[in-house]
Amino acid sequence: MFDNMKIKLKLPIILISFALISAIITGVISYTYAADQLTLSAKAKLTALLESRKESLIHYFDIIKQDLAFHSKAPTTRDATIEFINGWREEGSDSETILQTLYTKNNPFASGQKESLLDAEDGSAYSVAHRKYHGYFRNLAATHGYYDIFLVDTLGNIIYSVKKESDYATNILTGQWKDSHIAYAFTQINRNPSVNNIYLTDYFRYGPSNNEPEAFFAAPIHINGETYTGVLIFQMPIDALNKVMHVTAGMGETGETFLVGPDKLMRSDSRFFGAKSILSTVVDTDSVNKALKGLTGIQFDKDYRDAHVLSAFSPISYMALNWVIIAEVEKNEILHALNELAIILTAAMLIGVLFIFFFGFYFASNISNPISNMTNIMERLADNELDVNISVTQRDDEVGSMAKALEVFKSNAIERDKLQKELTHMAHHDMLTGLPTRKLIMDRLQDITSESDKDEQTFAVMFADLDNFKTVNDTLGHHIGDEVIKSAARIFKESLKENDFVARIGGDEFILLVSNVRDTEAALEVANKLVIAIKTGLSVVCATIPVTLSLGVAIYPEDADDVTSLIRHADEAMYRAKEGSKNRCSR
């Protein structure tokens, strides 16, 4: 791109470009760092809010549980249950119809206010009990935030309720509401009416209460802590739960906390959808799915409104409830301050660009002009004008240093070629033996393979490995090992023809190329001679430890017709020789 551009133009462009790139990189890093810090801060805050809501929710249920346990054991509840049961029985087999007529159908108060009736004034024992205890239970429900309070006898008859809705005076085991969750709560207690047994249902829509979401808390009632006589049930509306979850302090404009059940339906109302959310809005997000598996964490996710949010999630279990609690805030709100900062940084960068542009051209020109003069001098030197006057040597800056270096380059040019040849030789030959290395033998094999393919020549590749060499090194020392390697290399060269080739490719591994072999027998004959020569020659160098040769032979093109396959075949043959008795060749 810049190869054909004059340095007077190239240098300013490069300087300005690098300055701009540096500014952009700095801006991006600053933006990324700030985003990370804001995200970390938001995560810490959101996690703390999630834990706070979780603790508040458990505390809310604990208070109700304690309240239920207290009132289920209270003398007032016990006495009321006994008197309501007696009044129910006094009405006979038509007790359900009679009581519904008195307290529901003929109730003078409007629907939703029927709890205002204190006494049906029919003179019955039931109405006497109702006048005596109704104010107590109605006040308990109103002050503690319960939608309704029920007393149920052991047969499943709702002998009392505050609200007097359509479930009042019915049997929840056989009647219209036998499949409702109040019936389920009663059944759980009725099966095990031990003193401390308490059961809580999940929130579901309850028909008698305008099909609103309700949950039921149930506990057994005992006489003197012994005789099981009925069940006390609190009906809890969603409003109290929403108050716990809808605390917006610290949540900003888009933050909220909510609950999700195992069916992935909301168990508290959305801050944004209102009362239409609970048991209607499906929340099938990655955060919810992880929390339902028992995981706790925080991540960016896409929520039930298709908004990109930072979502903190955790499972929450209380008695029979297994819910998920979610705290989230929109990503855009988290990064709002950062986006404003990005605008300021962009404006500052544009101002900086103008400054860099003008300063860059001035500074680059001050450098490029003397460099251009140096270029002319170097071009003349490249044309072998070695008598050229390097006038800039009088300069004291880097350009003057470059001119002095040119004088040194001129005197070192002759030596460079000699040194290059020596380095090339060192790169392709083993320092200990002077033999070619793997690179050179591979090139040679590639060449002879191509030549032999054309001329239909046969040659052998031999993979050689010295037996017991490691023992020599470990026992006698590496200096003896080096002598063994050098002697082996000398024996190989002396044993092969002038056109043959030997290379050292590892510690005690060699590759031998034997050209123009007549057939397999001729190749094996050469191999056996090498085995004998190594054993005889190395016995002089290392008399105490016998160093022998394991040799693998591959014939071209009989065993393989490419370099890689030939070497692999020879290597495998060598290992077969070692696995045998060593000191031999194998094919």
TrEMBL record:
Keyword Transmembrane helix in annotation: yes
Residue ranges annotated for the HAMP domain, each copy included: 365-418
UniProt organism field: Veronia pacifica
Stretches that traverse the bilayer: 12-34, 309-329, 341-364
Cellular component annotations (GO), alphabetically ordered: membrane
GO molecular function, one term: catalytic activity
Any matching Pfam family: HAMP
Protein name per Swiss-Prot or TrEMBL: Diguanylate cyclase
Keywords: Membrane, Transmembrane, Transmembrane helix
InterPro entries referenced in this protein's UniProt entry, alphabetically: DGC-Regulatory_Protein (IPR052163), GGDEF_dom (IPR000160), HAMP_dom (IPR003660), Nucleotide_cyclase (IPR029787), Rev_trsase/Diguanyl_cyclase (IPR043128)
Cross-referenced SUPFAM superfamilies: HAMP domain-like, Nucleotide cyclase
Cofactor or coenzyme needed: Mg(2+)
Gene3D superfamilies assigned to the protein according to its UniProt record, in alphabetical order: 3.30.70.270, HAMP domain in histidine kinase, PAS domain
An individual GO BP term: signal transduction
Residues of the GGDEF domain: 457-587
